[in-house]
Amino acid sequence: MINSVIKVSQLIKQVETQEGPLKILKGIDLDVKSGESLAVVGPSGSGKSTLLGIIAALDTPSSGNVSIDGVDLSNLDEEQKAQLRKQKTSFVFQSFMLVDTLTALENVMLPAELSGLKNAKEKALQWLDKVGLSHRLHHLPKQLSGGEQQRVALARAFISQPKVLFADEPTGNLDSANGERVANLLFELNQAQGTTLILVTHDQKLAMRCQRQVQMEDGHLIELTQTPIAVGE
Ligand code: ADP
Ligand code: MG
């Protein structure tokens, strides 16, 4: 029985820049339990998105290890990583990342259909209902408000029933009422589906709704047991 769904050890990420090598992650260890909700906070430029991308198998570390649901990513080739991402994870972005030319229903349905999910349309309809968008099925993203677009993105993320949902500033482009609605859905689904939630946020209220908070600080990860330090973008 694997209790930790994410295990990160001694993660280092270094990139080459015009000014020379830049160490973005300086040795990160992290263990996330199945079903846990974890907030990653910290100042802009501290490495939060880089960390999330590596844990989500979208990017590779310079050294160190990441495993998702007991599978060590360093043993996988690109195709196997893509397969693992499809089977176990979903990602929600600050900028929604919907396909402009597809309707809400198609945005939710097509990726699911492509990854071989049965009854994709029926499930997409159910998920769009859960996020309160049954009346917007045939609208294009540009015909939807930001909050509605992010709810489409949530339906798309949850339809594959991921073990882990990654969200990078999921409420960053929303006003507070829409942000709260999206956050409510995230936690509802985290609880109802047992989905592990790892989210990067500047929103202190959102961070505090997670069971656990960690802070990125100049490439290091600090476990917070108290209220996170307020930081602005
Ligand atoms: P955060 O999400 O906390 O704002 P990021 O992870 O996006 O931080 O970036 C951390 C730092 O690393 C920033 O200074 C950013 O400019 C830099 N950085 C990220 N990726 C690259 C890259 N591929 N090449 C050069 N610099 C990068
Ligand atoms: Mg970021």
Q: Describe it for me?
A:
The strands form two sheets. Strands 6-7-8-3-9-10 form a six-stranded mixed β-sheet, sandwiched between helices. The protein has a four-stranded antiparallel β-sheet with strand order 2-1-4-5, covered by helices on one side. The chain has helices spanning 48-55, 78-88, 104-114, 120-130, 146-158, 176-193, 204-209; strands at residues 4-17, 20-33, 37-41, 63-68, 71-72, 89-93, 164-168, 196-200, 212-217, 220-224. With 233 residues, it is an alpha/beta fold. The protein has a single domain (35-48, 73-224), classed as 3-Layer(aba) Sandwich (Rossmann fold). Helix 4 (120-130) packs across helix 5 (146-158). The protein binds adenosine-5'-diphosphate and magnesium ion (MG). Residues 15, 17, 22, 24, 42, 44-50, 216 line the site of adenosine-5'-diphosphate. Adenosine-5'-diphosphate binds at residues 15, 17, 22, 24, 42, 44-50, 216.
How large a portion of the residues is in β-strands, by DSSP E? 25-35%
Biggest beta sheet summary: 6 strands, mixed
Count of all domains: 1
- The secondary-structure class comes to alpha/beta
| First-last Cα distance | 40 Å
Bound molecules: adenosine-5'-diphosphate, magnesium ion
Instruction: Tell me the total number of β-strands.
Output: 10
- Tell me the radius of gyration: 18 Å
Instruction: Trace the largest sheet across and list its strands.
Output: 6-7-8-3-9-10
Shape: globular
Order of helices and strands: EEEHEEHEHHHEHEHEE
Task: Report helical residue fraction.
Answer: 25-40%
CATH class label: Alpha Beta
Low-confidence stretches: none
Identify the CATH architecture: 3-Layer(aba) Sandwich
- Average pLDDT value? 94
CATH fold-level assignment = Rossmann fold
User: Could you state the CATH homologous superfamily?
Assistant: P-loop containing nucleotide triphosphate hydrolases
Contiguous helical run count: 7
Protein name: ABC transporter ATP-binding protein
Keywords: ATP-binding, Nucleotide-binding, Transport
Organism: Paraferrimonas haliotis
Family: Belongs to the ABC transporter superfamily. Macrolide exporter (TC 3.A.1.122) family.
